[in-house]
Structures are given as structure tokens and as C-alpha cells.
Write a structure and sequence with these properties.
Length: 309
Amino acid sequence: MKTRHTIHTAAAGLAVLLALSACGGAATGSQATDIPKTQNTRDISAGVQPDEAAVALLPESYKANGELTVAMDLSSPPMTFLAEDNATPIGVNPDLARLVAKKLGLKLKFENTAFDTIIPGIDGGRYDFTATTMSATEERLKVLDMINYLKGGSAVAVAKGNPLNLANDALCGKNIGVTKGSSQQLKHLPNVSKWTCEEKGNQAINAITLPNVQEALTQLDSKRIDGVFYDASALAWANEQQPGHFTVLEPRMDTRTDTNVAMGLKKGSPLTPAFQKAIQSVLETPEYKESLDYWGLGESAITEAKIRQ
């Protein structure tokens, strides 16, 4: 049996573009310390008390079990990744998942799994929920209850210095990497291609589907693709960790879609009412803003844990 902070599936090695700083073993600290972020395994939920109203909504089976299982693809810093100890989930999503579990008075078990296997796993009852920067698409809402907890956003990374002179509205006919199962692959790139290229009689954007952002950025660095379309926060983090490899286009991509991201549970889950109450309680804590600020995402805060329809 794994403990609260252990992972069932070992994460794949990080590609050079997203290599974590080689500063030694992991350390435990507070948000205010000088510990490198990749080593900081502090639990932001320490000292946070359960929300009695949220706990009262919990199904008895969860109260008896005392534990929630969260599925995450731990390969996308700064949102969701492993600390340098290669065991502790860190980032915005692990922080907020821990806070939600604490508000419900439950322990939290992490399952590290590929992004495109998360929804089938929840639907099949292997996981209770996910917090993996997932947007509420029409297809996902058919099988998931989804509750807003952050504002997201997408961006495009191109070769350093942008030698092809690409722009957010000038990607027609280019090979653009997207990650399998991501909102960029399923929704945003097709939308952008339609209104910036196809409706104007130009060649569609050629989506190159890759297993994860590390592989996508590696292929960009080796000039096998022209760009990478991914979560803006993750691209900014990668650029900060390994400057000089690529350029992130500004401003963020206008996808003409809602950019909120949501935690997901199985459709019709008896846990959903308690979960919505717990997320709302988290949004009202200082720890919520503290986590976002620490990971450079202060502008992503929201105030309402809305259940998506």
C-alpha cells in the first residue's frame, strides 16, 4: 500500500528542456523560504481545518474510508510534477488537491497516470477525482462532473528568436505540437485553425500529437516541428528553467473559448456536492492565493467554484 505522497507509476525522465535544477535532494520548507521550488516538498494544507459544511455533505462511504484518490499526470511543471526526490507531487494542482482533501477531512492518495487515461480511470472507478488543469469540454462533461478552480490559458512556443516569424494568427500550414488528450489537441487548435486559416481559404494548421510537453519541446528544439501549443503556465516555466531554447509568443493565444479549468469527478458522483463546497472553501483561503503566487500564477485566481453544465 502506498502512502499519501508516494506514486504508483514512476514518472518518465524529464527531457533536457524541462530538466529540474540539479541542486541535490528534496527539502521541506515554507512558501517564504529560499529553497528551490523543485525541492520544496512542504504541504501547503498543514494547519488548514476541515470545512464542517463540506464534511457534512460527504457520503458515509468516504467518511468511513477516510481517503480520496486523485489522478494526475505529474509531468507538467509548474502545474503538476514531481519534486527532485522523485516521489513528492508538487505544483499548483497538488497544492490545491491537498487543500480540498483537508477541507473534507480526508487523506489524499496520488496516482500518477498519463493524461489521456485519467478520464477512463475516473469513469471506471479507479480514481475519485482529477486536478490536472483540465478544461470542461462538451465531450468531458458527458462523463464527468466538473467544478471550476482556476483560470487557464494557452500559448505557443517557437524556436528561439522566432526565425520563421510566426504569430498566433499566422500558423497556417505549420507543424504544431500538441499533447495527447489535452484541450489544445481536442478543442483549441481545431478552433484556432478554423478561424485563422481555413475560413480564410488557407491551409489548416497541422497538429502533431505527442505524448507529453517534454517530448514536444524536445522536437521543437531539434527543429522537427515548428511550434508547441500548450498551457501558457507550463511553457513559461520551461522557458524560465532552460532559457535560450525557445521563445513563447505573446500575448496568450485567443482561443475564443472559456479558459477556466475544472476538477473532475465521475458523472453523477455522490461526492460532487461535498467537493463543490470544499473547492469553494479553498478559494476563500489565503493558501489558495499563496499557492498561485508562489508558482507565478496569481492572475489565475477565481472566486466561484461553479459546477459546469
